[in-house]
Amino acid sequence: MKSRFILIILIFLNNCSFDTKSGIWKSDNVNTKKKDDIFKDFENVSISDNIFDKIILLKNSNKIKISPAINNLKWQDIYFSDENNLKNFKFSNLNKINFKSKKLTREKVNNYLIFENDNLIIADEKGNIIVFSIKEKRIISKYNFYRKKYKGQKKKLNLYVENNIIYVSDNLGYLYSFNYKINKIIWAKNYKIPFRSNIKISFDKIICSDANNNLVFFNKINGEILKSIPTENSIITNDFGNNISINNNNLFYLNSYGSLYSGNIETMNLNWFINLNPSLNLKQSSLFNGREIINNGSKIIVSSNKNTYLIEADSGRILKKFNFSSTIKPIINNNIAFFLTKNSFLIAVDLLNPQILYSQDVNLQVAKFLDSKKKSLSFKDMKLLNDEIYIFLDNSFILNFKNNGQLNQIKKLPSKINTFPIVIDSSILYLNLKKKLIVVN
Questions:
Q1: Which of 4, 336, 350, 439 has minimal CB crowding within 10 Å?
Q2: How far is CA 347 from CA 53, 280, 341, 389, 404, in A?
Q3: How far is CA 253 from CA 68, 98, 114, 294, 301, in A?
Q4: Smallest Cα–Cα separation from 427: which of 6, 92, 29?
Q5: Which residues lie across from 56 on neighbouring strands?
């Protein structure tokens, strides 16, 4: 009887010490891949503004209304949509591996996946573009554009797919289009200046920017330059990639100098611009850094290294400046913006009457959930799934929050995550550490 009692106590204690053995905390897992810190250039900069760190409870739950979840079937843009914004996606939430492929490449892969017509498309540092058919469960196309003289150089490919054609810009100055159905280059141009932004396509125009902060419009049919708009060129560069977001006929472009531009896509003329960098010194520590910009048509969200700005899309007027900065690209849904900040706060903001609806310390919520000491977490991505907020950690754990900011569940993916996940047909797709495609539903 005594031995049985001791056994029960041991089982109970083991269950209560979940976090000490799971490796969920950043310091608990020495094998967790070190995440590139896009803010590393700012470590020695004195911060005059106080960083927001208050816990605010939601006063009116009726204010958080999420649009109905959609069953998504394509991911043509690395940031999903023209606006760089995400939807509320359906997810079966069984957390079981539905499919695991063979290794797709031996090389280091791009963090971003794209998807169309049941085909997953990835790129690696060697310059390979790999197309994997979900239906046929095999690689249907593998193509490398680069000649032997570029063999030793690491390639960073920016991808966009549309109607079986993959549009590619790279860090060598090439822009080309490749039809993966017929395994053939349609056209290719060498502009000799590395490209430094995501790709957008609208009105038969390809839009991207180069390392000199030029905003360039290209003809989608042949790759010829239609117009190049020079913006401020930073002599010293950092890891910030220029970013473009579009909505209907307007584009919004954020460069490495910290200037935000609005332009008309059809006329290729500028509407307005503002600078969001508080320091104009050309020093490594004063260069602009931030997250990808998103918009919902009427408003733009820009998160810099210290602050987050809510900007009127028509005029460029700053509607609100918040003293927090996003570590993950924010999400807008029904005029509510969700942020995951550098200091690990989950924040919901009302965009119609700009104010914080709630803010929760994610580290503290996890500590309370596990009944443990508060430590630090390493965040990878954030999605809206089934009306709730899912935060993906670098060590493959998932934190499931209700849309009111309360932690609901902690799970671990059945295979360690490598790339950013995408959501297709109620399943989560990503490449694991062995570069195998994992389909989880």
A1: 4
A2: 10, 29, 8, 11, 10
A3: 30, 39, 22, 10, 12
A4: 92
A5: 359
Tokens of 385: 């799934």
d(CA 217, CA 349): 34
User: How many C-alpha atoms does 364 have within 13 Å on its Cβ side?
Assistant: 12
Calpha distance 156→125 (Å, rounded): 6
CATH number at residue 232: 2.130.10.10
Q: Are 374 and 380 in contact (CB under 8 A)?
A: no
CA atoms of 267 and 264, how far apart (whole Å):
6
Which amino acid, 261? Y
Report yes or no on 55 lying in a domain: yes
pLDDT tens column, 163-199 = 999 999 999 999 999 999 999 999 999 999 999 999 9
In a domain, 4, yes or no: no
Task: Say how far apart CA 205 and CA 224 lie, in whole Å.
Answer: 10
Q: Which two tokens stand for residue 241?
A: 């990639």
Maximal CA-CA distance, the chain = 84
179 inside domain? yes
At which residue do the structure tokens 């009427």 appear? 298
Tens of pLDDT, residue by residue over 13-35, are 444 434 455 589 986 654 544 44
Q: DSSP letters along 199-229, please?
A: -EEETTEEEEEBTT--EEEEETTT--EEEEE
> How far is residue 136 CA from its own chain's centroid?
28
114 within a domain of the structure (yes/no): yes
| Cα–Cα distance measured from residue 417 to residue 35, given in angstroms and rounded to the nearest whole number | 13
Q: Which domain holds residue 219?
A: 23-440
Q: Assign 365 to helix, strand or coil.
A: helix
Residue 87 has phi, psi (to 5 degrees) of -95, 180
User: Which residue ranges of the chain lie beneath pLDDT 70?
Assistant: 1-22, 27-49, 234-239, 279-287
- Count of C-beta atoms within a 10 Å radius of residue 284: 12
> Count of alpha carbons within 13 Å of 70, Cβ hemisphere only?
11
The total of structural domains in the chain comes to 1
pLDDT of residue 149: 86
Does residue 16 sit in helix, strand or coil?
helix
Q: Residue 366 pairs with which residues in a beta bridge?
A: none
pTM of the model: 0.90
